[in-house]
Amino acid sequence: MTLTISCFLIVCPMVFLAGFVDSIAGGGGLISLPAYLLAGVPMHNAIATNKLSSATGTAISTVRLCKNKFVDWGLAFPCISMALLGSFAGAHLALTASDKLLKWMLIPILPIVAFYVLKKKNLEENIQTDISRRKQWLLCAACSLAVGCYDGFYGPGTGTFLLILYTGVAKLPVSKASGTMKLANLSSNIMALAVFLFSGKIVILLGLAASVFSIAGHYVGSGMVMKNGSKIVRPIILVVLALLFIKIITGM
């Protein structure tokens, strides 16, 4: 495709905002992917190029959260390995299949997830500290595999789904879930990025420029996570879910 100044003016500011949102609760792709499409980037190229900018930004927020002990390192291995495996399968599927079926499957799921988040006054409440470590390990592995596959295939909302599953299903406290989610999300991003890079679908120049803005957004957003924790996470999750629901039913 032919790149114009307007492409950069549309994509770069929106990718900064996407990075900010993504570093806090995931779902930055809800903003960045439509930005690429609005700039005239074809669907497959948009999904692929979005992986480049999102992966670089996610790396920054992941490093900050890891350094500040927001990761459950005992669960890092199953989360990372299963996210890699799922993303590998999903990315290959994305190169040959339509995303319509997966998007329509999400329509009944999103209201249920939103209801769950609304029902809980705080994502930290009712955390079962007596859940066995083995069960937690298996649950995190299963969640990472499923969401990793979705991330490779399509992507928007990945971090949000991981955060909700880690806190709601595996019963991780939101502080540890935030960093652990970022490790899994980064892993799935890198795997999908590698698959798309070898397929030649990435618009390199636009992706590199957007990466700079993504890094800045993630850096600012991850700092807010460390200061405010779940007070920021809950409302942003609700906004992200609403945006994803609207995006799907309007066919954007």
UniProtKB/TrEMBL annotation:
It comes from the Bacteria. It is found in: Cell membrane. Keywords: Cell membrane, Membrane, Transmembrane, Transmembrane helix, Transport. The chain crosses the membrane at residues 70-95, 101-118, 138-170, 190-220, 232-250. It is a multi-pass membrane protein. Pfam families: TauE (PF01925). Belongs to the 4-toluene sulfonate uptake permease (TSUP) (TC 2.A.102) family. This is Probable membrane transporter protein. It comes from Blautia difficilis.
